[in-house]
């Protein structure tokens, strides 16, 4: 079966402003995110791709723009099932304001039980994303063979949930996975099992540099809903 290259969109204006964007319109890449997207063609140079599949949201389309310009023959498809989680009434709110909500603890500790008011559950989010990958795997293999590779540009929580599925992890453990903006995660699917080949690869180790805001109780902090912005 094919190899899936998952790209999280570049850093967005919502990431830097601490807003849970969800499916809000008009959320674009910020200056750093635009630079990250511009570097993507070189990072993937030499990797044969049969297609690019994108979340319909603006920040994903902007992330793929330089890659598509560098590969004019690469077909692009929109896929609603890998769009951001529908955070419902939480969309557009500051993460700092949501931190004390009882639901946030459920999101962190028991995400399989979390459902956003006016939105969707995290279980439904994972199920639709996994279904999309299964369908695109079959479609890609039929058209291009089992050794083909294709790319999906999506969002932090979507990618983390796909990695959890590939590893056979319960969704309740997916907050242990980290994928920074414009990071590349690779899953190779086979008849017997998927293999996680790369996880959250940014091409550098800047994310390992201690941050000034990293002080937490007992050395821990919550995983960012929506994936977070990663290192500035």
DSSP helix fraction: 25-40%
Strand content: 5-15%
Q: Structural class given helices, strands, pairing?
A: alpha/beta
Shape, principal axes of CA atoms: globular
Radius of gyration: 17 Å
Tell me, rounded to a whole number, the average pLDDT. 91
Q: N-to-C terminal Cα separation, in Å? A: 36 Å
Number of helices: 7
How would you sum up the major sheet? 6 strands, mixed
- Tell me the series of helices and strands, N- to C-terminal: EHHEHEHHHEHEE
How are the strands ordered across the major sheet? 3-2-4-1-5-6
pLDDT < 50 stretches: none
Explain the overall architecture:
The protein has 232 residues and is α/β, with parallel strands linked by helices. The chain is built from 7 helices and 6 strands; from the N terminus they run E-H-H-E-H-E-H-H-H-E-H-E-E. The protein has helices spanning 13-17, 31-43, 58-70, 95-98, 102-109, 122-144, 156-167, and strands at 3-8, 52-54, 76-78, 149-154, 184-189, 194-201. Strand 5 (184-189) and strand 6 (194-201) form a beta hairpin.
Secondary-structure map with pairings?
Blueprint: E1 3-8, H1 13-17, H2 31-43, E2 52-54, H3 58-70, E3 76-78, H4 95-98, H5 102-109, H6 122-144, E4 149-154, H7 156-167, E5 184-189, E6 194-201
Parallel strand pairs: 1-4, 2-3, 2-4
Antiparallel strand pairs: 1-5, 5-6
Helix pairs in contact: 2-3, 6-7
Characteristics of this structure?
232 residues, alpha/beta, 6 strands, single chain, 6-stranded mixed β-sheet
């Amino acid at each position: 079966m094919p190899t899936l290259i998952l790209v999280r969109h570049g850093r967005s204006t919502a990431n830097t402003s601490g807003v849970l964007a969800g499916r809000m319109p008009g959320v674009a890449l910020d200056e750093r995110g635009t630079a990250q997207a511009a570097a993507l063609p070189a990072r993937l140079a030499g990797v044969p791709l049969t297609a690019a599949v994108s979340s319909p949201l603006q920040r994903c389309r902007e992330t793929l723009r330089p890659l598509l310009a560098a590969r004019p023959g690469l077909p692009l498809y929109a896929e609603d099932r890998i769009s951001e989680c529908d955070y419902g009434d939480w969309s557009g709110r500051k993460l700092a304001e949501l931190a004390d909500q009882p639901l946030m603890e459920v999101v962190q500790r028991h995400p399989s039980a979390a459902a956003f008011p006016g939105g969707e559950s995290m279980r439904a989010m994972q199920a639709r994303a996994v279904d999309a990958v299964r369908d695109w795997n079959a479609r890609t293999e039929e058209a291009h063979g089992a050794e083909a590779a294709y790319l999906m540009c999506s969002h932090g929580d979507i990618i983390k949930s796909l990695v959890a599925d590939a590893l056979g992890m319960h969704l309740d453990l997916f907050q242990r996975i980290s994928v920074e903006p414009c990071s590349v995660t690779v899953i190779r699917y086979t008849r017997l099992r998927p293999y996680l080949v790369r996880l959250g690869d940014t091409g550098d180790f800047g994310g390992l540099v201690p941050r000034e805001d990293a002080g937490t109780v007992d050395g821990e902090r919550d995983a960012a809903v929506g994936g977070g912005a990663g290192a500035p």
